[in-house]
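Input:
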Amino acid sequence: MQIVVVGSVALDTVQTPWGEAYDALGGSATYFSLTAVRQAEVGLVAVVGEDLPDSALELFGQKGVDLAGLERTEGKCFRWGGRYHADINHRDTLFTQLNVFEHFHPKLPESYRKADILFLANIHPALQMEVLEQAQKPRLVAVDTMNLWIDSARDELLEVLRRVDLVFLNDEEVRQLSGRYSLPEAVAQVQAMGPGIVVVKKGEHGALLFDGKRCFALPALVLDQVVDPTGAGDTFAGGFLGHVASKETIDHDVLREAMVRGTVMASFATEGFSVDGLRDLSSEAIADRREELRRLTSWPDGSA
Amino acid sequence: MQIVVVGSVALDTVQTPWGEAYDALGGSATYFSLTAVRQAEVGLVAVVGEDLPDSALELFGQKGVDLAGLERTEGKCFRWGGRYHADINHRDTLFTQLNVFEHFHPKLPESYRKADILFLANIHPALQMEVLEQAQKPRLVAVDTMNLWIDSARDELLEVLRRVDLVFLNDEEVRQLSGRYSLPEAVAQVQAMGPGIVVVKKGEHGALLFDGKRCFALPALVLDQVVDPTGAGDTFAGGFLGHVASKETIDHDVLREAMVRGTVMASFATEGFSVDGLRDLSSEAIADRREELRRLTSWPDGSA
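Output:
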């Protein structure tokens, strides 16, 4: 398996000023795997309840996501409800129902243990550690987390960070985790915790890559209409690691292109509710949007 | 005269977590003119009191800023006091003393009236209009403003906007002025008010240029230490319009390079209190930082 992701497959209820979705397919591992699978073999580790619609399984199957690690158990799926306001960068969580996730202990099928790349999506660091223990020397381990775990499970998170190569954080999280406001200082602190590569996600303001002392800054696309930003971060990670998986070496140029791919894919995720923006996406549409991002960020010709 | 700027020459008292400055040279026209004068003839229109230190006049003189439009009058200089916190993107205004600015009516000396470029820095829109009335067909009129005038002098501001070509706004201001949250929609609304070119300044997140329907996104430099962001926006405008003044035509490439110049110059302004970061700046240091910004934003080689 090229990439193994552990995270959530969930049913999301989302309200935005432009509409709403009820019990729609979501979850970090969902957005990630449906994106990364375009460029790599992806195995999914998660737990779902009996109420996951068959259409969700069909979608994973149709896109080629390996489900050997997907546990189906009695009970209901993990559910999350959130509301976005006109300022689409901020959201209120309306409810979180762990359901089958409450007693979940991820188990890697034999075929996943030699994964090339491991992505520990945003779940409790103790579960992330359980996955790490079952994997055999991945080429790259990447992790996502959130303010909740930085606050409430800091020691376990630090334990995980010591063992990973790359961390995805938003700018608030990198400051919260490090206790530093200056971004380069904050990132240096986080790098000293373990991961040499830090990707700072800033939503509509783009993303920053810190790879050792080198840095790459990439703006986000300027989108006419963001419908639902849920899952944009996991889609970004899926594009990013999907690209890395498709390359034999991981150098700074590969990571820069991974930033581009992540940014392009995330833009599609925000254009529809649930995974609608990713469902019928053509390679041409992706290539066109990459070109749009290049034009948006291009310096004037001949000015060097 | 290539560029005429009307704005404030002030004495600022600034506190940051890293130190403080008391009655130090500041003001929008100060930062702007000391920056733009590196690339163009600049005439300054402002009013100062008897307490402006001679060293300030010497600095303008030494850098070549034309002071024919600088009025000295009885009374005290405009004073502003502010405090920044660890989150350097936000500040509290501690006091604003208009002093000699209270009864100021800008007068353009004869030699300024045929200015090629006019920059109406952030002052009351009624004063901006007085300047507009005295100018004779500038090639480009640019304006800056702030939330206070958008709220309290909206009609006069709209009157000014109808007559300008370019507006500098931060992302909050563009949303406040337009009543739209989506940035492309907000910018389109502002363009419909008059200025075809909208520059959205986002502090540490960089800046966006909207020129008709074309857009350019440029990240800010990632700075190890921001000492005092006061004046960064006016320095950005000074770099931007200084570059435009040095070119015969104003096309999209010229505007993109103006964004680069503005971003580079603003980064220096934040590295010291008052105008310290701009005082002894060499052309080599500017060129080096431009190269640093290019490296920071460069896409991987051969990936196109």
